[in-house]
Amino acid sequence: MVNLALSLFLTLPFILSVQGCPGEDHDHTHIEHKRAFPQAAVTPPTRALEWGDVNIIHTTDSHGWLLGHQKSSFPEPNYSGDLGDFASFVSHMKEIALRKDVDLLLVDSGDLHDGTGLSDGFPAGDVDAHESNKFLAQLPYDVMTIGNHELYVYANTLDMYKNFVPKLKGRYLSSNVNITVLDEHGNVVSVPVGRSEMAFSFIFRGEINDVTPWVARGKKVTALGVLFNFKGNDKNTTVQPVADMVKEKWFLDAIKEEPDFFLLTGHMPVVKNDWPLVFNAVRAVHPHAPILILGGHTHIRDCVQFDGRSMALESGRYMETVGWMSMKLDHKNSAENLTFSRRYLDPNRVTYEVSPLHAIPRIINLKLGTTEVPHNGEKPHLRYATREIDVQRSQSSCKVIRPRLRLRDPYPSNSSLLTLFASKAMPVALSINNTRANVPNVIIINSGIQRFDLYSGPFTRNDQLTASFYADAFFFIPDIPAGIANQVLPALNGARANEGRALMSELEKFENELYGRGYVDMIYMRWLDEMDKRGGVERRAAQNATLGYVTQDSCPGIGDDVVHAPLPFFTPPRFISSTPPNVSDDTPVDLVFVDFIEKRVLQILNTVQTTKNYTAVDVQTYSPVLSNAVMGLYAQQAWN
Ligand SMILES: *[C@@H]1O[C@H](CO)[C@@H](O)[C@H](O)[C@H]1NC(C)=O
Ligand SMILES: *[C@@H]1O[C@H](CO)[C@@H](O)[C@H](O)[C@H]1NC(C)=O
Ligand SMILES: *[C@@H]1O[C@H](CO)[C@@H](O)[C@H](O)[C@H]1NC(C)=O
Ligand SMILES: *[C@@H]1O[C@H](CO)[C@@H](O)[C@H](O)[C@H]1NC(C)=O
Ligand SMILES: *[C@@H]1O[C@H](CO)[C@@H](O)[C@H](O)[C@H]1NC(C)=O
Ligand SMILES: *[C@@H]1O[C@H](CO)[C@@H](O)[C@H](O)[C@H]1NC(C)=O
Ligand SMILES: *[C@@H]1O[C@H](CO)[C@@H](O)[C@H](O)[C@H]1NC(C)=O
Ligand SMILES: *[C@@H]1O[C@H](CO)[C@@H](O)[C@H](O)[C@H]1NC(C)=O
Ligand SMILES: *[C@@H]1O[C@H](CO)[C@@H](O)[C@H](O)[C@H]1NC(C)=O
Ligand SMILES: [Zn+2]
Ligand SMILES: [Zn+2]
User: Fold this and answer.
1) Nearest bound ligand to CA 186?
2) What single DSSP character describes residue 8?
3) Nearest ligand 4 atom to alpha carbon 308
4) Ligand 7 in contact with 542 (CB < 6 A)?
5) What is the second-level CATH architecture of the domain 51-364?
6) Domain extents for the chain?
7) In whole numbers, what is the pLDDT of the chain averaged over residues?
8) Protein residue with least CA distance to atom 8, ligand 1
9) CATH class of 402-493+573-640
10) pLDDT at 166
């Protein structure tokens, strides 16, 4: 048996330097301490996990969050487990599975790129997530599938294809996603990013899986890895619509034989997407085969059962959730409902320690990170070391954020990240080296441009990249009368009642277009809003639950491992702007906006005035500064 000892030495060259903090020594200050065990009184999970014959630990949309959430504001400590802690947990759970003589699979549903300094803070010339993916490759993943964030930049996809996928030894699936490369004869070929032959279905037998030899002993599993109909992919990558994929001959061949269960992984939300296409295609051939679906992409916790012999789980985002699914198998050809369970774990050391303890308390006496577990001399136990890059301390701490700025706080308000971004950070950052700086302007963005909160304390490059990782360009149209420019924002947000249904359908069209290009924040925010509206005030007032996600999905029982009260949530407008200049209505101003909303802005501009028919020809580049650099440039000026 292969020893699972994972040495997750995070020995990255120091990649997170922040430019331009005067006097700051950017030398490589690795801080090699192990984060202390949480000191605060912690809420351990109170219920044991329900084990079945097949058990799955699921991650999705990790977006580079492998160092765990490191801020001390609640509920961040609940997500403080790092990849080393997670590796320990997986290892312990695999050991328990072995003792219980059941199968345990580790599955990931994609989006490894874009989101933190660890993944995105690479020096010029390097490739996003190339380093962080090396750590992930050390975990014993049984199946991984591709996400849309692997496809925005060809170099990233190529890096996956060349460097990451081979490490997964055939366990990386991209059933409907190809990359175009040159073959050994110099011919241009389109090939699956993941498994190249039989990319779409593979059968575990114990021996395939050299890292986890006890996995699926003898059981036959047919696995697929499907991406939603993503339209924002880079040239030389291909995403085949799911509806077409299920008609392909290889697909029908792959699902022809009935395995013990189907493992349908995919970067698609379990509700309102294309899963039914895949599910129904399989069901049409196998009316009773167990089907396990592991989805992702919309960053929420969710679960649904399409029928009594299947379950579909989605496990959140950013390593804020580790999903658990289990199924008790029955005999072949049974048509009875199967017994499933699902759970959303908060990834922290307490959860990681206590969940396995619940399973076999007397045998396992484990202590994460330190090892020394008595277990009958069978094998050496997990030993790992995480040499942590202390992102906070090894970065320029000359910039200090106060107060905490959150996306979910009321807009506008002093603690709203969007307020700061729109009314202060953008005007400052975009005026740097800009010949238009003296022309009054109105800057309009979509609120989804910001992705994560900023906590008080030192402002690091990691903070900058987690808060805003979209690299949108700023465009402008000159010489718009202020009176007209000021009407654009309210019109974008649908304030003009007379447009009524037409506008709503335009907004829906816009949202669908955004969705096709991979933007999911509106769905995630709606989820937060709903959980707050469902008695958030009362739950917080009761003061018997800690803050966190409160999930209501359509699977039986309570899914959250620890019962929480939701954070208050205030939905921001879809579009926000800088403070309008104090000028007369006829003063010409620059109407500035992000590239991403160009079409919509032009549409609206042509409804609020009819003097001129504005088109793409009138649009120019406003500044070379991209949206993901704005907070950093502002921090240098304002927080020094
Ligand atoms: C989760 O956060 C709460 C505060 O909201 C804290 O009291 C609790 O200890 C945290 N739980 C863990 C396991 O870190
Ligand atoms: C993907 O590559 C395979 C193998 O070259 C090819 O048969 C298939 O048609 C390609 N699919 C798409 C959607 O390009
Ligand atoms: C796609 O890749 C091939 C092979 O490298 C190359 O010849 C071709 O120019 C690329 N196409 C585009 C649109 O970049
Ligand atoms: C079987 O499961 C389905 C889907 O979850 C449910 O609608 C149905 O009521 C269940 N049947 C029984 C007998 O429990
Ligand atoms: C918000 O900030 C402004 C300016 O710094 C200050 O005058 C005001 O009192 C603050 N409001 C609140 C509610 O803190
Ligand atoms: C502005 O110009 C100066 C001098 O050319 C340059 O050093 C600096 O990097 C520029 N700043 C930005 C944000 O482009
Ligand atoms: C917290 O208190 C409320 C009101 O007393 C109660 O309904 C709820 O079940 C309690 N929740 C927990 C997690 O104990
Ligand atoms: C706007 O400008 C006018 C005229 O210059 C001035 O009287 C007024 O106080 C300004 N308003 C604000 C809010 O700055
Ligand atoms: C405005 O210009 C666009 C692009 O040239 C054209 O398609 C559209 O019909 C024009 N609209 C009006 C009202 O002239
Ligand atoms: Zn994602
Ligand atoms: Zn995604």
Assistant:
1) 3
2) -
3) 2
4) yes
5) 4-Layer Sandwich (3.60)
6) 51-364, 402-493+573-640
7) 82
8) 42
9) alpha beta
10) 94
